[in-house]
Each structure stands twice: as C-alpha cells, then as structure tokens.
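Blackboard transcription, Thursday session:
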Amino acid sequence: MQPSAVPAEAAVARINGGVWRALRRNWSVMTGGSVLALLVLIALAAPWLGTVDPTLFDPASRDLLPGAIGEITTLEGETIAHRFLMGSDGFGRDVYSRVIYGTRVSLIVGVAVALVSLIFGVSCGLAAGYIRWLDGVLMRVMDGVMAIPGILIAIALVALWKASLFTVIVAIAIPDIPRVTRLVRSLVLSLREEPYVEAAVSLGTRTLHIMFGHILPNTMAPLIVQGTFTCAAAILVEAILSFLGVGLPTDVPTWGNIMAEGRVQFNDFPHNVFFPGAFLALTVLAINMLGDGLRDTLDPRMSKRI
Amino acid sequence: MSQPVLEVRNLTIALPPGADRARAVEGVSFCAAAHEIVCLVGESGSGKSVIAHAAMGLLPKTLKAVAGEILLQGENILGASDQRLRELRCTRMSMIFQEPMTALNPVMRCGEQIDEVLRMHTSLAPQARRAKVVDILKQVHLPEPGRMLASYPHQLSGGQRQRIMIAIALVLDPVLLIADEPTTALDVTTQAQILLLIKEIQRVHGTGVLFITHDFGVVAEIAHRVAVLRAGELVELNAAGDLLSNPQHEYTRMLIGSVPSITPRHRDAPADAPVVLRTRALTKTYAASGWLHRRAAVSAAADVSLEIRRGQTLGIVGESGSGKSTVARCITRLIDPSAGEILLGGVDIASMPAGKLRQLRRHIQIVFQDPYRSLNPRRRIGDSVIEGPMNYGLPRAEAMTRAKRLMELVRLDPNSLERYPHQFSGGQRQRICIARALAMEPDLLIADEAVSALDVSVQAQVLALLDEIRDRLNLAMLFITHDLRVAAQVCDHVAVMSRGRLVEYGPASAVFANPQHEYTRALFAAAPGRSWEFGSGNTLM
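(Written on the board underneath:)
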C-alpha cells in the first residue's frame, strides 16, 4: 500500500490553510471579526479621531445636543471651539471623546479577563482532570467560588482594594475561572481515555508532558470559543460594575461610567446613554458572532452543520 | 424465481463536491425476490450502506440519487413523497441496524416501542395490539414476554435488543427487510443465534432480505445470492455457493482470499525459547465501595497465569467482557492489577511504583484497536514515532533515523513522517502505530484487537506484517482478539477467556483441533462460515 500522492509539504499546508479557508467562508466569523477589528482600530487610533482629552470639561458647553458646536478649555487653559458629535454631558465633557476612549477600557478588560480566566481555568482543569486525587478537592473549591454571585465578589474586592483596572479585571475573572475549569476538566476526562494518551503512557512519557503536550493541544478549539464568550461577558460585567459605581473610578471614561452619569438626565438628554449603550451592544454582538462562527468551524461537535 | 420485491436499476448516487470520489454508488442494478436473502458485501466506503439507506428513503440531503430507480414491488422509492415513505416503512419494508442500543429509544419500554408501530399503521384495538406484540416476541424467541415488554433497552443484552429490533421490523409482516450489519456489534455466539433467527423468520414469512455485511463468514452462513461492491460499483453478482467456491472477478477472489482460514497454520516455533513475560494468578477486581454500604466487587480478570516466550505469539481469545483486554492493560500497567504477579524477565512489575516502572515500560509496547484514535491528531506522525526513544534520552536526529528505518520496515514512505495522521488510511495508521511501538525496541509487543477495525484485505496485510516483524526482530507477541480466524493464523499458543477466567490454554493446533472446554467448543461452533474453507489463496506468507 502506498501513501496517496499528495506531497507532504502541500498536505501540511492544506490542513492549516483548510482551517483559515473555512474561517474565511464563515459569514459569522467574517462579520464579527470585521466589526471587532474596526473597534480595535478605533481604540488604538483614539487620539487621532477628532477627539479631545476625555476628562476636559467646560461649564459653558453643558448639555449640548449631538452635532452642536461649543467651546472647551484645554489643560493649558486655552479655550478652543469644538464640535460635539455626540453632544456633551452635565459637566460639559465631550461624549464622543469619552465613548471613543471608553473602547480602550472595554477591550482591555474583555481580553485581559479572558486570558486570566483561561490561564487559571486551564491549569486547574488539567490538574483536576488528570491527577485524580486532586479532583475532589479542586472541584469542591470551584463549586464554592461558583456559589458566590459574581457581582458580590466584585463589590467586595473593590471595597477591599481601591478601584482600579487591575481590581476590576481580577474581580470579573474570578467567577469565570470555575466555568473554564469545569469545561477543561470534562474535556480532559474524555481525552485521557484516548488510546494515543495511553500509548504515550506506555512510551514512558512524563505526566507533565502528557498533560501539556498531548492533552492541552486537543482542548484548544473549545477553549478559543469559550474565550470569546468570556470576553464578551466580561465587557458587559465591567459596564454593569461601572454603572453601579463599583467599577473603575468615575473620572476614567468607560461606557458604564458614561451611562451612569447620563442616567439622571436620561429623559431630557438620552444621547448620554444611547451612544455608549450602542457601542457596548455592538461590541458584545460582534464578539458573540465571532465566537459562534469559531465554534461552528473549530468545534464541529457543537455545530449544527456536518 | 418469483416476482422481485426489491429491484434496484442502474442506481447512481452523487457525493457532495470535495469527497474522495464523485459518486457514492455508480450504476448498480440487482434485485431481491421474496423468500430470498441477498447479501451486499464490500469493504468500508464501498457504498453498501448508502444503497440500504436509499432503499428506505433515508438518504441524507447531501447525497442525491442522480440516476436509476429503486422499485419496491414496482413502486419507485426515489420519487416517493415523505408521506408515502412513512406509509411504506414498517408495513412493506423495514430496516434493522448495527447498534440496537442506539436504534432503540432509551427512555421507552420495549413493549411501547413495538406497540407504537401498530398504533401508527393499524387501527387495531389495544387488546389485539397486545396479542400481536406478544406473538411477535414469541416468534423472535424472547423468553418471558411480559418482562421483556416492561423492560427498557439498557436492561437487555445486546442480542435481546437486536431481537426487539427484529420484532419491531417484522411485526407488520413487511415484504422486504433491510439488515445493515445487524450482527457486527454482537459477540460471535450471539451473532450465530441472530443469524439463525433472521433465516428462520424470513423462511416463515417469505420476506425478501437485503443483508449488508463486510464479513464473508456471515455471507457463507446466510446468503442465497451475493452482490460484491467495490468503491460504489457492483463487481460481481452470483448465487452464494458459486460466488464463494468460484469467484469470477479478481476483486472478489482477493476478498475471499484475504479471509483468514480457521484451521491453524502450522509453524515450527522453538519450544524452549526464553520466557519474556509470565503472569501468576493475575487478578483485577473493581471494588466499588460506597460510603454507606459496600457494593459488590466486579471481577474483570481472575487468576490468569500465562507465559509468553521470545519469538512466539500467544493469543487471548474471548468475547466482549471476557477480560482479555483487562489482562493486556494490566500487563502494560495502564491499569493496576489487584493481585498476582507480572514477571518481566524475572522482575515483578505488578505493584512496582510508577517512578521505577518508567525504566521498564520500554520493554512492553502496545498497539490498540482504533487506528483513528491511536495517534494524536495534532502531531506529525514523525513526532509520534520518535516520542518514545526521546523519552529515554535518544537525540532527536538519531531517533529520526530510527523512525525512517521503521517506516520502511512497516512499508510506508519514510518521507511521510512530516504528515499528520488524518492524511493516512486506517491500515496505514495501524502501521504507524506498530512503528511507534517498535521504536522502543520492545521485547513484548501487545496487539489489542489491532486488526479488528480494519477491512479484511487490509487486515491480511497488517497480520502478515506483524508476523514478519515478530520473526525478524525475534519478538514475543501477545495477540488479543475476538476473531477465531485471526487467532488461528497468527498464534502459536491460544488462551481462551470467559468471564474473567482462563478456560482453556494450550498450543493453537491442539486447541483448534480438539477443544476441551465446553465454552471453547461453543465459541468454535458459532464461528460464521465454518463449513467453508476460506483463505486458500492466503497472503499470509
């Protein structure tokens, strides 16, 4: 029996190329990915998008409607004319600049929370799934963490430490760790029974290498998918925490803070809530679409298609 | 011959674009009459199941019949509406599947599942339905109909479940029964009973049967006529006796020649070769102890004493649940034995701690059954083959050289080490697994059902390869199998296991010629196609 005639290099390129091609063909991945890429670009290019410093205010320009031209005082005390594309808030700050800069906070929180919860969740999940005597202890601890409402942990942590980006990321990541742990553990429990893992055992491969070299790579697809959903949820939770006043300090422009401050004037000036809310919805939708598409392509077991 | 109940004319079914060939089935024509069993035989991917599903109107949407027709008593199935197909199923044609556990609804009692067919298709009163259900259970020889009706599928054995499936299929007395590998998932003794039952019921009811199988032994047992398929094309269609004794097409000859003979092959193995591995009273008990009460312990293997000598093959033969794989996994220490000794070159490894055991693992290597799960899908096969030697300190370059040499030994292109497992066929992957095991330069090679998942022609090649390797490298081999034909061809000694115990153990020629234990005799009597001498053109050496 001869191996089929495809040259080896071309064949390896095909499986890598195959995944990329499948991703590019996926409508949901492309739409979600493009919108997300646009948002990342906006976050990076915030200073050059006709914004001013988001903390600047001018009492003369309070409660302007979107598109109105007013004036704003820079830190050097200079007063300049400025077009308030999304209006201004009750302090005379430019909502447009604040929303654009808020994109940075949201994306950083989303990505950081996803990374932190994945790193800790994967470590715990691998350990619980592969090292049997650790399983009971670790999973009961995780059950304990899951029993505490996430918002409560966040409030407690912010009260304990001072409100900062780091605190918020930790506070949101902790309730997500048990979820990732459970996912990874269930994957490991089935993967450890695979004959190729047993073969590695009889080849004398060390336990750590089996866990990270054989089992972990095969959990990647569902983990990437889980990561995107964690990211979207974290952005939402950050906005909720800010809105409740237990998130980032009020002088930091985040979507939640802008909405919280705009809430009192909502009946008269809905733009203060509408614009950050629209950005929030768009971001979460884009990430969730990306996650759905990734799941369909990378994790066919979960997909409805063949 | 009477009027055919099923007539397939020039059937052509297209595969979706991107598949390995354009057509799943190409221009296939055959027919099955009442009172007739027609076997569709072919290797995996030959299109036999596609034809069966097409005849039931069960083709997935991605597969389209592009030409030809399937006539059930003259009515074209391919053009029938969904509603018409629903009316025809069970009343005029029925199907039974390979895995009765998944074909039956696990949350419905068996009685309700049979009754459902009657409720859907007839207007009988509950009393009459009940009588009919009990009657069909008697016909399929299920004991205690009352208990069977009230049981859920998981409470029955595999053979009983398949009988329930047959009861459901035949309760409305259809003219056509399609059986898609109905005995493949069953043990050989159960298989023999189910085959008998299908033959008997078919004779009584005059049903036409389309029987899909890959096993020529089963064909020899049951078929009146045989259609051989290769890659979607019909290569030969003939009466069973003629086809088996005088195959016309070269492919049929190759297939029949690949079926191992059940008569053991004589081989002069040195009787005084050194013992590589010996087990003494090896026992594995699963003690499920609860917190509040002790549950009964399950004995997977009890008091198993074996010895394997250099250059020889010991076969462990048994049905599912007999404990043969447990013994293999204890010997490799993938599971820890509960009692007894495993002596590897005089050292007991049965209870050796993991750290010390690691140095000895290289002496025992194992090849598993499922070629699709035995290789890490995310690793190049080269990395899989050199993993073991590198674990024991061999530099990468040297390990690669060894891997290339082994690839030649297992007849694969050494340059394909850069590829991923999914680019190989099942037989090729099994060769890679053998190469990976041999890279450790073991003394004992364990093949745990290593050829059971392979097509018969590929199986013959892999068996020949294993035989050759054992002789060239002077290995001791432990061969676990449920297939007596395979055991007859490769084993010097045979151990027969039943319910965790060795019931018979001796030289293969003696055990096959004159089985002593009653279980062994029953096992041999159940082997399908025993009356046919297969493997005359055997490729094994």
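Lecturer's comment: The first helix of chain A runs from residue 8 to 25.
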